[in-house]
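User: What would this chain look like folded?
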Amino acid sequence: MNISKFLAGAFIAVASTMALTSCEDYLEKDPDSTVNAEDAFKDYKNFQGFLDEVYNCVPNKNIHYWTQTWNLGEDEYNVPDANWHMLHQVDLGDFWKWQGGSLGQAGFWFDKGSVNPRSNNTADHALYAHAWYCIRKCNMGLENLDNMVGTAEERQLLKGQMHFFRAWWHFEMMQFLGGLPYLDHTIPASESPTEPRLSFQECADRCAEDFRTAADLLPLDWDQTTVGRKTIGHNDFRINKVMALGYLGKCLLWAGSPLMVNGAQTGGTHTYDYDNAYCEKAASAFGELLSLVEAGQTLYKLASWDYANVYDHQKNEGAEDCFSDIFLSVRNQGRVPGAKESIFRAPNIAWANGGPNSFICYNYLTTFGPNELEGRDNQVHHPTANYVEYYGMANGMPIDDPDSGYDPTHPYKDRDPRFYHDIIYDGCMFVVGAGSDDEKYSPLYTGGAFRKETTASSTGYLMNKLVPHNSNKVDQVGWGWGDNPNADIPYMRLADIYLMYAEAAGVVGGASGKSTNFSKTAEEAINVVRDRCGAGHVAAKYTANRNMFIDEVRRERAVELAFEGLRFNDLQRWLLLTEPKYTKKTAHEFKRVESIEWLKENDPSEARIAELEERVLLVRPFTAKHYWFPLKREETQLYEGYEQNPGW
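Assistant: Here's the prediction, encoded as structure tokens.
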């Protein structure tokens, strides 16, 4: 795209590219239709249709492409055949590859070369590729709101949505790119942009203003509004007060985090140096949200842990939505997953390139194994050994604590309950139906059939959290379209809110810190999340020291939010992304001691192993410049003052 075309398109998103639509037909409009304020903004129906395109543009990270990358931290390792994924480029330190077009990696949800905001194909949506376009739509709507003939409630709901989305698109870009121009007005097509690039904190302040406005305007439940009653039961994705409060707190916590306070640097010496004022405001926003939740005034609650068999994700009879229902829905008439815990999700538009079925079969499960149990393209990602070590013990302690009870000859015994939900380890029954004894019991020991580095697990582990192990060619749970598989990775869920509250309040007051508008302390908030699965509370030795408590909050985020696309940005904002512990990806090498016959009769968590060692698979060559992705070169040439990120 040449510069003149760019000025008239992506960055300033001129009016000639906008659709004018009603709620029913906006996806079908000609992409080149022009904006006519008399049509687009004349009444609520047309205005909401104009705005609904912004919802449509929110990318679904996990079904954006036929095989996908959304975990860019030290949490996953991919087989060599998946080296064209963005994860591999991040491992090499080549952050330029986030960009679409000739530089880009196919399937990366953040950007791509060709997008269509009106498409009902998930492959046509990406975050950066839509952001400036959607921001402009919000600004156009706000500037024309007074032209609409409608009720006060209709104006209020429209205004709240536009303030939310203007901030949301800015904030999602900022997490990867740093501070940006904050566009709160439309730029005429005849003018070149001259908006100053703000610091992250300056930009976050502007986001916070918009999120606060949205929170004050939007309802807790659209079904209880006059407008929402017309679509009652179908308002789950509509922006509400809880979503706005959640993002208000998140953007303030990010603004107060070590990276934003101290600047990009190596060494990790400032990892506990937050801005208390930002964190106090963040805790207040989260406190307002959690008070509403715990008073029963919202639609949200933590999913249950009511399992008959947690490894198989088998719920007890009559159980409500369980933890695994947040991420995957199978044999449930295509129901969108999320339970009542998901707060902000991408819309459930039409599937493309195999959609959720590809999410199941290409990204994680299953290993090719002796009988090619997966039987499709070899694009497998699997948990790193170093990340699995964040899963502590059932008593709540980290495994490296001398009082934890961890035994390296029995490394799967008495672990945090989430370990058994999330991780496939050696000896677990992999195939339920017919098959060889070897493939049935996850041969993940060194030299085992599931340890072929080019076709299976390099690390000694496989994923079970987002996709059940029985989604394989033999058992076929969620394997085919007849099972109506539907997968989703939420942008924000309630457990994340509790943990962000614990971090923000803990920064200001340690484990006993709390906001003035919520009854729970930071320690109590983290224990709410642990109580859900039955993990032990934070031990006294960690609550007695502010920094040690923050370490436990961070470990809790690693475990509770594992593989949900949040780890990279957490390490980034904590100024830990470049530090040796977090740049390594490792494997566990060991010998299996127990026989197949023993495994048939016993719990694999009780199995003994021998000669456990940790082997380094790669070390990411990160320097201070890697705290931010580079801006697009062509955009930094648009006007003086729009500077590239340092080091790029």
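The CA atoms of residues 342 and 493 lie 4 Å apart. If you want, I can go into more detail on any region.
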